[in-house]
């Protein structure tokens, strides 16, 4: 009878609580926990159990090429590969020991696990990026990608900045682009466009500029609403402090604060009621907002002479 080899790796029966439940889950599983909590131990035990007990639809035993393990970093994938291989090799040695001891059905399991160890180079243990790259390459013609593409964030960023520079130069005569560059700086706008290209424009579909504009408009309207509410609060506090008696200059400021940018400008005396040239009661919302802001155009501080 052979000697039972010593154990270094935990098996499913050694786990407890949530760890055991994760290792015994009967479907695809996601193991999420903090650093040092035993995620790799659980995944290694689960992997070995699936090889020991798992069956494919045709009834054949599961092998390393049939299991998929994904993680976020290359370092984590390398550690997982090493730990799983060690746990599998140990399980194969234990099964061989039981087979040598004459345990029933141990010989078939020992042979299967030995074959899994031999073919472990077929194991699919990688990062999400690497696996996605494999899928993309397998259908590059369908996805419209070059078959020799590479996952390189640094190169993608450099290419995006070069394309953004060309776009800026091409659009340098546009009023909106001139205003954006004047406000934020040429390099900053280039980097902003590059970031949008890398982070918001997947290769599989063209960018939806209409949706982007609608989202930006919604955010700006929300910010303007909060700003107007704050101005109204300031106006009410000023009136309360003054007891309702204010100078004409202060009253002009209070009237400007109270103007509703979503309402058509009303005709009447005073800077707050005036509309900019070209604005009318039928003007769209953007022009009405400009009309409201124009109420501040000619105002001076109340103390000015």
Describe, in short, the structure shown.
This protein has helices at 17-24, 39-53, 74-100, 106-118, 128-138, 140-143, 153-170, 175-184, 186-200, 209-242, 248-258, 285-294; strands spanning 68-71, 124-127. It is mostly helical and 305 residues long.
Low-confidence stretches: 267-283
The percent range for strand residues is: under 5%
The rounded Rg comes to 34 Å
Shape designation: elongated
Counting DSSP E segments of at least 2 residues, the number of strands comes to: 2
Distance between the termini: 108 Å
Oligomer: single chain
Average pLDDT rating: 80
Order of helices and strands: HHEHHEHHHHHHHH
Question: What characterizes the major β-sheet?
Answer: 2 strands, parallel
Helix coverage percent = 55-70%
Structural category: mainly alpha
Sum up the structure in keywords.
mainly alpha; two-stranded parallel ribbon; 2 strands; 3% strand
What this model shows, in words?
The protein is an all-alpha fold and 305 residues long. The protein has helices at residues 17-24, 39-53, 74-100, 106-118, 128-138, 140-143, 153-170, 175-184, 186-200, 209-242, 248-258, 285-294, and strands at residues 68-71, 124-127. It has a two-stranded parallel sheet. The longest helix is centred in the last third of the chain and has 34 residues, at 209-242. 14% of the residues are buried.
